[in-house]
Amino acid sequence: IEDIQMSANAAVGPALEVVEQLLRDKASAGAVIDAYCSILDGLADFLFASPDATSRALFISRRVKPAKSTIMRSDISKGPGSRMHDCCGRVITHISDGAVPEDASRMMAVTINGQLLTFHFARDHLKYLLGYDEITPERLAALKAIAREQTTLILKACSKPSARDEGVRA
Predict the structure, then answer these.
(1) Tens digit of pLDDT for each residue in 60-87?
(2) Chain-wide mean pLDDT for the chain?
(3) pTM of the full predicted structure?
(4) CA proximity to 47, closest of 59, 57, 36, 37
(5) Contact by Cβ (8 Å): 32, 19
(6) DSSP state, 96?
(7) Which of 26, 44, 94, 124 has a CA 20 to 30 Å removed from the CA of 88?
Protein backbone atom coordinates (compact mmCIF):
# COMPACT_ATOMS: atom_id res chain seq x y z
CA ILE A 1 0.00 0.00 0.00
CA GLU A 2 2.86 2.37 0.83
CA ASP A 3 4.44 1.65 -2.56
CA ILE A 4 1.16 2.44 -4.31
CA GLN A 5 0.80 5.67 -2.32
CA MET A 6 4.36 6.72 -3.18
CA SER A 7 3.71 6.02 -6.87
CA ALA A 8 0.45 7.99 -6.73
CA ASN A 9 2.22 10.92 -5.08
CA ALA A 10 4.91 10.86 -7.75
CA ALA A 11 2.27 10.84 -10.50
CA VAL A 12 -0.06 13.58 -9.25
CA GLY A 13 2.03 15.42 -6.66
CA PRO A 14 3.67 17.93 -9.01
CA ALA A 15 0.32 18.87 -10.58
CA LEU A 16 -1.26 19.17 -7.12
CA GLU A 17 1.50 21.57 -6.08
CA VAL A 18 0.81 23.73 -9.13
CA VAL A 19 -2.94 23.81 -8.40
CA GLU A 20 -2.39 24.57 -4.73
CA GLN A 21 -0.11 27.49 -5.67
CA LEU A 22 -2.63 28.78 -8.21
CA LEU A 23 -5.34 28.67 -5.55
CA ARG A 24 -3.13 30.58 -3.10
CA ASP A 25 -2.44 33.14 -5.83
CA LYS A 26 -6.16 33.41 -6.65
CA ALA A 27 -5.34 32.64 -10.28
CA SER A 28 -7.80 32.90 -13.15
CA ALA A 29 -10.39 30.19 -13.69
CA GLY A 30 -8.74 29.22 -16.99
CA ALA A 31 -5.35 28.61 -15.37
CA VAL A 32 -6.88 26.62 -12.52
CA ILE A 33 -9.05 24.52 -14.86
CA ASP A 34 -6.03 23.68 -17.01
CA ALA A 35 -4.05 22.72 -13.91
CA TYR A 36 -6.94 20.55 -12.64
CA CYS A 37 -6.84 18.73 -15.98
CA SER A 38 -3.10 18.16 -15.44
CA ILE A 39 -3.95 16.39 -12.17
CA LEU A 40 -6.24 14.09 -14.15
CA ASP A 41 -3.49 13.49 -16.73
CA GLY A 42 -1.17 12.41 -13.92
CA LEU A 43 -3.88 10.23 -12.40
CA ALA A 44 -4.52 8.57 -15.78
CA ASP A 45 -0.80 7.89 -16.22
CA PHE A 46 -0.66 6.42 -12.71
CA LEU A 47 -3.73 4.24 -13.28
CA PHE A 48 -2.91 2.97 -16.77
CA ALA A 49 0.61 3.72 -18.05
CA SER A 50 2.85 1.93 -15.55
CA PRO A 51 3.83 -1.71 -16.15
CA ASP A 52 2.23 -2.79 -12.86
CA ALA A 53 -1.03 -0.85 -13.29
CA THR A 54 -3.18 -3.93 -13.86
CA SER A 55 -1.79 -5.85 -10.90
CA ARG A 56 -2.09 -2.73 -8.73
CA ALA A 57 -5.77 -2.37 -9.67
CA LEU A 58 -6.36 -6.02 -8.83
CA PHE A 59 -4.56 -5.63 -5.49
CA ILE A 60 -6.63 -2.57 -4.59
CA SER A 61 -9.92 -4.19 -5.54
CA ARG A 62 -9.17 -7.41 -3.64
CA ARG A 63 -7.24 -6.18 -0.62
CA VAL A 64 -7.67 -2.47 -0.02
CA LYS A 65 -11.28 -1.71 -0.92
CA PRO A 66 -12.75 -4.41 1.38
CA ALA A 67 -10.43 -3.31 4.19
CA LYS A 68 -11.38 0.39 3.95
CA SER A 69 -14.43 -0.23 6.13
CA THR A 70 -12.10 -1.25 8.95
CA ILE A 71 -9.54 1.52 8.38
CA MET A 72 -10.02 4.58 10.51
CA ARG A 73 -10.95 7.81 8.72
CA SER A 74 -7.76 9.48 9.93
CA ASP A 75 -5.66 6.79 8.21
CA ILE A 76 -7.49 7.28 4.91
CA SER A 77 -7.11 11.06 5.07
CA LYS A 78 -3.32 10.69 5.06
CA GLY A 79 -3.23 9.20 1.55
CA PRO A 80 -2.63 11.01 -1.74
CA GLY A 81 -6.23 10.46 -2.83
CA SER A 82 -7.49 12.61 0.02
CA ARG A 83 -5.12 15.46 -0.84
CA MET A 84 -6.14 15.27 -4.49
CA HIS A 85 -9.83 15.17 -3.65
CA ASP A 86 -9.58 18.13 -1.26
CA CYS A 87 -7.61 20.13 -3.82
CA CYS A 88 -10.08 19.37 -6.61
CA GLY A 89 -13.00 20.41 -4.41
CA ARG A 90 -11.25 23.69 -3.64
CA VAL A 91 -10.79 24.28 -7.38
CA ILE A 92 -14.54 24.11 -7.90
CA THR A 93 -15.19 26.46 -4.99
CA HIS A 94 -12.53 28.84 -6.34
CA ILE A 95 -13.72 29.00 -9.93
CA SER A 96 -17.34 29.39 -8.84
CA ASP A 97 -16.29 32.21 -6.51
CA GLY A 98 -18.05 30.37 -3.69
CA ALA A 99 -21.34 29.92 -5.59
CA VAL A 100 -20.93 26.14 -5.38
CA PRO A 101 -21.05 25.15 -1.69
CA GLU A 102 -18.18 23.10 -0.25
CA ASP A 103 -20.21 19.90 0.06
CA ALA A 104 -21.38 20.15 -3.56
CA SER A 105 -17.82 20.97 -4.68
CA ARG A 106 -16.52 17.80 -3.04
CA MET A 107 -19.26 15.71 -4.67
CA MET A 108 -18.50 17.24 -8.05
CA ALA A 109 -14.81 16.43 -7.61
CA VAL A 110 -15.73 12.79 -6.93
CA THR A 111 -17.75 12.62 -10.14
CA ILE A 112 -15.11 14.40 -12.24
CA ASN A 113 -12.25 12.26 -10.95
CA GLY A 114 -14.44 9.17 -11.14
CA GLN A 115 -14.49 9.29 -14.92
CA LEU A 116 -10.99 7.77 -14.83
CA LEU A 117 -11.63 5.47 -11.90
CA THR A 118 -14.50 3.86 -13.80
CA PHE A 119 -12.03 2.58 -16.39
CA HIS A 120 -9.59 1.58 -13.66
CA PHE A 121 -11.99 -0.55 -11.66
CA ALA A 122 -14.06 -1.87 -14.58
CA ARG A 123 -11.15 -3.43 -16.42
CA ASP A 124 -12.93 -6.80 -16.71
CA HIS A 125 -15.87 -5.06 -18.41
CA LEU A 126 -13.89 -3.07 -20.98
CA LYS A 127 -14.23 -5.83 -23.58
CA TYR A 128 -17.99 -5.95 -23.08
CA LEU A 129 -18.44 -2.17 -22.97
CA LEU A 130 -15.86 -1.01 -25.53
CA GLY A 131 -14.66 -4.06 -27.42
CA TYR A 132 -11.17 -4.24 -25.91
CA ASP A 133 -9.60 -5.46 -22.72
CA GLU A 134 -6.59 -3.19 -22.28
CA ILE A 135 -5.70 0.48 -22.26
CA THR A 136 -3.02 0.89 -24.92
CA PRO A 137 -0.98 4.10 -25.14
CA GLU A 138 -3.26 5.30 -27.95
CA ARG A 139 -6.37 4.58 -25.90
CA LEU A 140 -4.82 6.27 -22.89
CA ALA A 141 -4.17 9.40 -24.95
CA ALA A 142 -7.78 9.36 -26.15
CA LEU A 143 -9.08 8.80 -22.61
CA LYS A 144 -7.00 11.70 -21.29
CA ALA A 145 -8.25 13.99 -24.07
CA ILE A 146 -11.87 13.05 -23.38
CA ALA A 147 -11.44 13.47 -19.61
CA ARG A 148 -9.79 16.86 -20.17
CA GLU A 149 -12.60 18.01 -22.48
CA GLN A 150 -15.38 16.83 -20.17
CA THR A 151 -13.69 18.28 -17.10
CA THR A 152 -13.17 21.63 -18.80
CA LEU A 153 -16.82 21.78 -19.85
CA ILE A 154 -18.06 20.95 -16.35
CA LEU A 155 -15.71 23.40 -14.66
CA LYS A 156 -16.46 26.18 -17.14
CA ALA A 157 -20.14 25.72 -16.32
CA CYS A 158 -19.31 26.28 -12.63
CA SER A 159 -17.15 29.33 -13.18
CA LYS A 160 -18.39 32.77 -12.33
CA PRO A 161 -19.80 34.66 -15.34
CA SER A 162 -16.78 36.96 -15.66
CA ALA A 163 -14.46 33.94 -16.03
CA ARG A 164 -16.69 32.39 -18.71
CA ASP A 165 -16.70 35.71 -20.57
CA GLU A 166 -12.87 35.86 -20.48
CA GLY A 167 -12.76 32.80 -22.75
CA VAL A 168 -11.68 30.00 -20.43
CA ARG A 169 -9.81 27.48 -22.60
CA ALA A 170 -11.74 24.41 -23.64
Answers:
(1) 777 655 555 554 444 444 566 789 999 9
(2) 84
(3) 0.83
(4) 57
(5) yes
(6) T
(7) 124
